[in-house]
Each structure stands twice: as structure tokens, then as C-alpha cells.
Amino acid sequence: MEITRRHLLMLLPSAAVAWKYVLAGTPEAAPNYKLTEHWWGMLIDIPKCIGCGSCVRACAQENDVPEGYFRTWVERYHVADWKIEKPEVESPDGGKQAFPPNEESGGKNFFVPKLCNHCADSPCTQVCPVGATFSAPDGVVLVDKKYCVGCRYCVQACPYGCRFINPKTNTAEKCTLCYHRITKGLTTACCEVCPTGARQLADLKNPNDPIHEFLRTHTVQVLKPHMATGAKIFYNGMDGSVR
Amino acid sequence: MPFSSTEGASAGGERTTLLKDIEHLFRLALLMVIGVIVFILFRAAVIPHSFGQYGHYRGDAIKEIAARPIAFAGHQVCENCHTEVVEQKKLGKHVVVPCEACHGALANHAEDPASVKPPKLDTAVICARCHEANSAKPRTFPQVVTADHAGGLACDTCHQPHKPAIETSVKNVAEGKK
Amino acid sequence: MHIPVEGFMYPNEVELQWSVLIVLYPFITGLVAGAFILASLERVFRVQAVKPTYRLALLTALSFLLVAPLPLQLHLGHPERSFEMYLTPHRSSAMAMFGFVYLWYLMAVLLMEIWLDYRRDIVLKSRSTTGLTRFLYRLLTLGSQNISERSLRIDDRLGYLITLVGIPSAFLLHGYVGFIFGSVKANPWWSSPLMPIVFIFSAIVSGIAAVMLLYMLSTRLRRREIDIRCLDTIAQYLLYAFVIDFSLEMLDLLQRIYEADESFRSLDFMVHTRLWQSQVIVQILMGTVTPIALLGLTQILKLTETARKRIYALAGSLTVIGIFAMRWNVVIGGQLFSKSFLGYTTYKMGFATREGLLTAILLMILPFLILWVLVKLLPPWPDADAFSVSSATPAQGTS
Question: Would A69 disulfide with which of A164, B33, C172, C384, CB 3.0-4.6 Å?
């Protein structure tokens, strides 16, 4: 039975190639992955997010994120009537165990998942003194933990608060857009487990990626556009009160 | 150490050449030049060889980061073996819910199904994460106040997670139990 | 360690990134720049009155400059990799470029100037001392024993040139530290084009005050007569620098209050609550307004020498404390509020930890120990040993 299933697997090319590397855990990315053929981003559909925290848990598991630190997290917003400059926001343990029951329906309430925006003009890579954090040619901002000196300048420079220092390695760390997965044809852990499809990985250089049509037909924003970071995480249906 | 001919010279002492009078500056300059050369040699020896390959960083870092082992197999992999669950899910609303959203990361199970068994899930905890009533959830999304709804019962008492809609007969039993 | 949070903060923001050691760092480099500017007052601007403090100012600058990298090393997650900043400096990073500014200032400006000014004394001491000290002095001579008139004149001219270059270098040294903060657009408490300038002038103020206090203290310890004209002049320059510094800081504050951009409400609340003691009480009232008033008094009223000395000591001490508070308010203050402008956190400073209070105290004591050693090796006192070039007396072989 299993052998038959494995043969079935071989019929799915990308999965087959990816699976070989998944099993082997070998140091090079899948051979059919070319850095210059991709430009990664993500689409987050706010009206679809149910604040279940699956993404936060999955990310922590996939990437060994230490307790108390977050590569991704979910915020819950409460906006009273017209007061969009004074929202009430909470994120208990980053939303990892979802949110406590809350039926209060006055005003406007919604969830906002956050992660590294993988900025095209990233201020964090600008300030790194040694070249330990960088923007890879495929648009993912990464940290070389063998080279990082732990000065924390990048953490200060990120306007979105997505960076932290891993207490075990004493180096800077943040969302890698599951680089070890996307280079093998898989999607990120957070997008994989999202039950409502609120999070979708997007390859902006792929003309067949559904994001192009989505961006054309929906109203989207990025976080803190006045910072001109070239953020590549696009939020559909994001309220003006979101910080 | 050889002393210059101006040892202990004061005003009106022996005349000295200009070169001798700036000799100490040459020594200083030499020291600095040696320092620079030592630094350049040290740098050439120590700098990682893949540095600068794609930009101002170690090119090897990209490969190293991509080499991390995978924890979540992805629902396509699950579906290749568990076809009966796939058929069941197709009949209900949870068809869009990825397997590992509830079952957790199972790449190691997919690699060796015999020796790695996925843990049994506690529906009381898992289901509430999505379906506990919260005004920030979309109004059309099915949500309940579990304390009132289930009266302490575990969710899978009435609901089959792979096909969550309750059949009429099961509903009557559930009403009876409450 | 539980950190109390008020309101909402992004989850990763709760813990502060830069500790009291990063407060120490601009404070120390500020003292360096300020002490050097005081030294340059005599050397370049020919303010003869402050000459008695010339050498002391240079040695003070060196003592602090040598200690400056230590708080940084202790703060780094991987100090053993810190040399990477010299091997592969990222040219867009102010922190990386600062490594070279520091190196330039240490090697090409401060050490050179001290060496050239002291060279005659070093050569003479290399002949008159014995044992380890003799070896040390001979090392410092770099093998040249030439102290002819012309060589000393050349040294003097070169020293003048170096001080001339050193003034913008000192501005660059501490201005850069200001830029490291001022260029961070993500942080509205820091992001300001005024930051480098405010840092420079507060550095000058702290450096002048520090040298003034050290001059008063060392003269008292040596049981000598203080040069009151020197002291009066230093105090005058301290007042001028203070007025400029205060004006700049008030300008920044008034502009912020008037423009009231999206961050203002959050920052204003932070100053009124978490920073009230350190900013309003210590930095502004005690550390700026009071010293300015005291120093202003000495300019307006005719006070006795004793009264003036007491006022200078008090004003100087308050100044140094106030400038430390300013660094604290910038560094720590900039991390107490959330970048969402919806919450605040707390700084939990350890005591006997790598980045704790005890470490900070020890690091602040260290420059004085180094200064003590330097003062023994290269006495800066103008009266005790008449070795200065301008005095034109024959060399005396004393230790």
C-alpha cells in the first residue's frame, strides 16, 4: 500500500522534488529553485481572520521560536465608533492560545495578524553594522546567525516590532517567511495551517500567482506606509486604526 | 639603541639635519603603515569566502537557512495516504481546514508513519480556538459560547471533526444528553 | 522576569534592547569630545587662560576614550565577533562607520597629539628612570631620542595641525553617536536632524565640566594654588556651551509640542509619568537650569574667589549628572513606549549582571584609574615640572 502511495507521490513533480529534500534535510535548496525567479510577499485577508492563533503556534513549532518571543502574532482591535486614532488593542501571548471569549459587540472588532514585512527598502538591513541581516535576491529578509554580533540595532530600526534577540543564540531573529519551506515548493507554516485562508503566500514575480488579480480588484494597504519601507505584506480590508 | 648626535641638545647646540629632526615622525608613520598591512593580511585570511557573493553578506547563509529541517508536511502529503478522510472532509465545511491546523506538525509521521504516531487530540481545547465566540470574528463565522453550548461536554461527543455538521439522529441524542 | 506593561505593546517590544551600558557609551564619548574641545581652546583659539588644563584635558579624553568600547563589548550578544565591524563594515550603517571614526580619533588625533606634546618629557624620562618604567618610556620614544629645538618646533606645528583637524574630528566622533540615534526613523523619540547637534553640544558641556572638576580636585589633592583666572575662563565657556545646548533642546521640545504629530500624545504621557524624575527633575531643573543660573550668577555678581569655587564645583557636578540623565532619557526613554503609541513598558535594570548597575559603576570608575596611571606616567601639571616647550627652560632630569 505504502509503496503504491509513494509512487503516486512521484507523479506530483514539485512535491516529489521537495519531498526528497524534506527527507534528506540536505544543505542545498531544491535544485530547481532560482533566487532571481522569485519575489516573495504575503497577502493577509483581515475579514477572514478568526484569531484562532494556529499561525502563531505553527510558526513556533516549525521554527523553534523561544517562549515569550514571536516571529508572528495576532492582535485584536476594538475601535469605538469614529475614534480610529484611539483603538484598544490586545495580544495575549501573541494570540498563541487564541483569544478569551468576548461577546461585547459595541464598536468595531477584528483581528490583525502581524509578521515581518520583508521590506524591499528595509531599514533593518540598512543599519546592520556587519552585514548579518540582508535582503536575499528573492526578496526575503534573513539573518545570518553565524555572523550576527547581537548589537540589536536592527531590532531598534524595525518600525513594526517584528524582531527580537533569541536568548539561546544571542543573535537577532525574526520571520524568515519559512525560507526553508518556500525554496522547496512548500508554503509557509502559518499559511499552511490557516483554516480560513486569511494568510496566503505570494510570489510577486510569478505571473500566475492569484495575488496579482487580487491586488487589482481589492483595496489593500501595507503597515506604516509613511515609513516608505517597501513592505511586501499586503492587508486586505485593513482599518485605518491599525498601528 | 643608537643615540642621535643631538643628545641633550638645547638652544645653540649642535646643528641637525631636517631629516634627523623628523626621523621620529617617519618611525611613527612606519608603525602605522605596518599596522595597516597587518590588518589587510588578517582581513584577507579571516573574512568568510562567500562574503559578497550576492551582496554585503555571506552568500553561504542563504543555503544554510534553506537547509533547516521541516516540521509541517503540508496537507497534500497527508491526503496522499489518508484518502478516506479526504472523502469525508469533502462532504462538510472543514474541507478547507488543513490537516495540521488541528493535528499539529507531522512531517516526521509522514516520513515514517509506523514509528511516529500523531497524538490524540483534546477537542475541548482545539475546537474552542476557532469556534469560541468573539466579537472580533467575522459575524458569519460559526461561533458559540462553549460553556453554554456544550454544557461541559467535549465537542466530539456530537461533532465529527472531519465532517462537523451534525446528523439529525445524533442531534436528538445530543439534546437528550443535555 | 516579568515586565509590567501598561496598555498595548507589540509582543517583542516589551523587553528593552539597549541597557544602561548603552547609556554609558554616549556619556563617555561625550566627555572625550568635550574635554578635547576644552584643550583645543588653548591650542587653536589661543585662550591662554585655560592653558593649565591643556594636558589634563588630553589625558582625561584618552582615559575615557580607552574605556568607551567596553560597555559596547559587554552589551553585544557575541563580542568575540565584534571585529567583524572592521572586516566587513556595512557602509550604510552608522554604527559600522563609527568604528572607523573612533579609530581615526584615537590613533590619528588623540594619541598623536599627546605623543607630540609629551615627546620631550618622554625622551628625558627614558634617560632618567630605571627598570620597567624606563622600558616603557623607551618604547614610547619609538626609538628616537631627538629633542632638538627644531624637532620640537616641528612637533609643535604638527600638533597644532592635528588639533585643528581634531576639532571637526571630535565633533564627528560624538555627532556620529547622535546620528546613530537620530537616523532611526522607526523611533520618533530619537529620529531628528537635531540629534547629532544636541549630542555634540551636550558633550562639550559635560567634557568641560568634567575637566573643570578634575582640575579643581587634582589641585586640591596636590595641595597647590589653583589658577583662578583659568577656572573663571573655563566656567565662562561652560556657560556659553550650556546656553547653546539648552536652546537646542528647548527648540526640539517646543517644536514637538507645537506640531503634535501622531507620536506626541504617547511621548508626552511618557515624559509626564515614566520620565518625570529623570527628565524634568534631574536633567532639566537640576542638571541644566540650576547650573546655568549658578554660572550666570558668577558672571553678573562680584563674588569672592571662595564663593566662585564653591559654585563652580556645585554647578560642574550638577552638569555632569544632568548630562548623564540626558543620555538616560534618550536611550532608555526611547524604548519605554510602544511603536504602536498605545502602551509603555518598564526598564528592569539588574545589579550584578553583565549589563547591570554594578557593571556600569565599575565602568565609570575605570577611566579614573586609567587617568591616575597616565598622570603618574605623563604628569600634566604645569607648575611641578617645567617641561613644556613654551617655557624654554633647559631640560631637567627628574622623574
Answer: A164
Q: Which residues of chain A does C333 touch, with a Cβ-Cβ cutoff of 8 Å?
A: none
A123 vs C398 pLDDT, higher one:
A123
Q: At what angle do helices C20-43 and C305-331 cross, to 10 degrees?
A: 140
Instruction: List the single residue in B with minimal CA-CA distance to C116.
Output: B25
Minimal Cβ distance to A149: which of C12, C82, C262 = C82
Interface contact C77-A150, CB threshold 8 A? yes
Cβ of C145 within 8 Å of Cβ of B7? The answer is yes
For the CA atoms of C129, C135, C139, C145, the dihedral, rounded to the nearest 10 degrees, stands at 40
Q: Per-residue pLDDT averaged across C147-153, rounded? A: 91
pLDDT digits (tens, 9 = 90+) for A138-153: 999 999 999 999 999 9
Which of A10-24, B123-137, C82-96, C267-281 has the weakest average pLDDT? A10-24
- In this prediction, residue A2 carries a pLDDT of 39
| CB neighbourhood size of C282 (10 A) | 21
How far C186 CA sits from the closest chain B CA (Å)? Answer: 23
Residue A85 is given by DSSP the state T
Q: How far is B167 from chain A (nearest CA, A)?
A: 23
User: What pLDDT is stored for residue B162 in this prediction?
Assistant: 94
CB C372 within 8 A of CB C222: no
Give the confidence band of B56 by pLDDT, cuts at 50, 70, 90.
very high
Q: Please provide the DSSP assignment of A113-155 as one string.
A: EEE----TT-HHHHH-SSS-EEE-TTS-EEE-TTT-----HHH
Q: Would you state the pLDDT for residue C385? A: 47
Distance from CA of B113 to the nearest CA of A (A): 10
Average pLDDT on A167-194 reads: 97
C223 φ/ψ sector (left φ>0, alpha ψ -120 to 50, else beta): left
Judged by CB atoms closer than 8 Å, whether chains meet at B9 and C150 is answered as no
Cβ-based contacts of B109 with chain A (< 8 Å): none
Mutate to test the interface with C, among B6, B14, B22, B24 (most CBs of C within 10 A): B24
- Strand A72-79 to strand C6-7: parallel, antiparallel, or no bridges (unpaired)? unpaired
Residue B159 CB neighbours (<10 A): 20
Do A144 and A132 touch, CB atoms closer than 8 A?
yes
The string of DSSP codes covering A177-238 is TTHHHHTTTPPPHHHHH-TT--EEEEETT-TT-THHHHHHHS-EE-S-GGG-----EEEET-
Q: Give me the sheet containing A40-45, strands edge to edge.
A: A199-203, A40-45, A233-236, A220-221
Which of B21, B33, B34 best probes binding to C when mutated, by most C CB atoms within 10 angstroms? Answer: B21
